Amino acid sequence: QVHLVESGGGVVQAGVSLRLSCAASGGLFTIKAMGWFRQAPGKEREFVAAISRSGGNTDYADSVKGRFTISRENNKNTVYLQMNDLKPDDTAVYYCAASWQTASTSRRRSQYDTWGQGTQVTVSS
Description:
By secondary structure, the protein is mainly β. It is 0% helix and 46% strand.
């Protein structure tokens, strides 16, 4: 019964920052690793970042490495994506995801069991 809700998206100019949040409710003790994915129109959903259950390990797609930072609260009910130096290619719907399967970071959609509805990020040049 885990439910995820993303927030923080918007329309911004290239070079600025946004911070996305994902709040989890229900079945919190089933959540292990969490991640962020994004999907642009006409494209498949792609991996952006992941964080282990403890928050001690993170993983990033090459396209966002050095610009984005994923983090989570100690109580494990909220995960964030700090997005710096945004580029037009970052434009997409961003989804958070929770895994019941693994406590380690994962890039595979199949390892995530619960998904949020997404938040739109639009970056203008």
